[in-house]
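All the exercises in this workshop are built on plain-text protein records. There is nothing in a record beyond a sequence line and a structure line. A learned vocabulary of local backbone shapes supplies the integers on the structure line. The question running through the whole workshop is how a given chain folds. Here is such a record, shown just as it appears in the course material:

***
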Amino acid sequence: MKNVHSLLVMSVILLTAGVAAAGDWVVYDGFDGPGKGKHIVLISGDEEYRSEETLPQLGRILAKHHGFKCTVLFAINPADGSIDPNVNNNIPGLEALKSADLMVIFTRFRNLPDDQLKHIADYVDSGRPIVGLRTATHAFNLSGSKSYQRYTWTSKEWDGGFGRQVLGETWISHHGQHGKQSTRGLVAKGQEKHPILRGIGDGDVWGPTDVYGVRLPLPAGCTPIVMGQVLEGMKPDDKPVEGKPNDPMMPVAWTKSFESAGGKSARVFTTTMGASQDLASEGVRRLLVNACYWSLGMEDKIAGKSAVDLVGAFKPTPFRFGGAAKGVKPADHAMSPAATR
């Protein structure tokens, strides 16, 4: 009886916290806020930048402070059910995209089977909005796909694959020195009043990840809104690098209009920032939250300074290959009762 009582108490706690962990993924039910009734699906899966830490925290922020229901998906090791970004062919729960109002994707070189990738492709074809983070520009590296080879990052059928066609660019290069030069975000000229930048000024966006190289100009339909100033070091107050790395600067955040297979025009936002360490920056969190609102056509609901306080404990792991925490299960990302108060 004691064990039964403990299980009942735990169930009540989880329900009260507005969160459910369904084995391979985690769901944060929306609290009060403009996003009430909207469903965001956040897809993690990269080996280096700790998307498995970024997206649960972003999901908690969007759920607690803004009312969105958020489902967070992970690369799962089928042997033990743990989160393992080195398993590049398994992201359970993509069926959640059927009811999604917004897809947030942060994957890298995934080799998903067709039955999983179909849910992403169906979502893209539906013309619903998309937010892409960092390595989503090279989200897929498909070696065995029979139906979705065009999504791979080196596709010739779909030049640059999902990254370039849907988000605006595929993988090109590290523009700043990786692990040595950080990124300061500067508002792109003429974009000072863009809704995504509400409450964000020069220097508010900063992260230890380096600027990615892109081909300029970006494809038609893309509008840069934040430029990435390469800094000499890994602190937000470091000096800008002189010379070529900042002349010209590369965009690190842009909007795009994507014409779906069904003829619908989807709003797309892409940023080459987003590592879990980047999320320690209030400006980066505000950029991502505002981008979700804008992508959903809810820019009129963006506050003068969106609430982006961290929800629960957040100690981002330094980005590197092989740096993912071992043995973590999706349920470990459940929102604690204390975080809901």
In short: The chain has one domain: 15-173+254-340. The CA atoms of residues 187 and 195 lie 12 Å apart. Helices lie at 2-16, 51-66, 114-126, 161-167, 282-295.
